[in-house]
Design a protein that fits this description.
This protein is of the alpha/beta class and 126 residues long. 32% of the residues lie in helices and 46% in strands. It has four helices and seven strands, in the order βαααββαββββ. The protein has a seven-stranded mixed β-sheet. Strand 2 and strand 3 form a beta hairpin. The chain is globular and about 35 Å long.
Length: 126
Amino acid sequence: MTDRTSGTGSAVDEAMECELRLLDPDVRNSAELLAELLHPEFSEFGVSGRRWDRESIIEAVADASATTGRAITTMRMKGVQLAPDLVQLTFDTNTNGRLAHRSSLWRLTEDRGWLLYFHQGTPYEE
């Protein structure tokens, strides 16, 4: 289930669609599909506080998703186009009761379209 507020332009809508694909259990179960959505210079500050690079997050997400396969619920997704090739999304997630505020930066590439460049997750309680 997703609650989202569309941005003012198609770039925001495209980034939102890519973000939602990344959260899809079928994509998360596949290292290949994950890799298709991540920028070569991707980095993340995870909910755990750990810093991740592209290779480590692909391995960790695909391994964890293969064992859990749980859907991630998104709420309050909003986006803003910061530059012609850069979109920031903010949203909250609920993963089996674990809540997190999230922020993503999506960069438009000439050859592969919108790719996730940076992500941060911060846990919170209601």
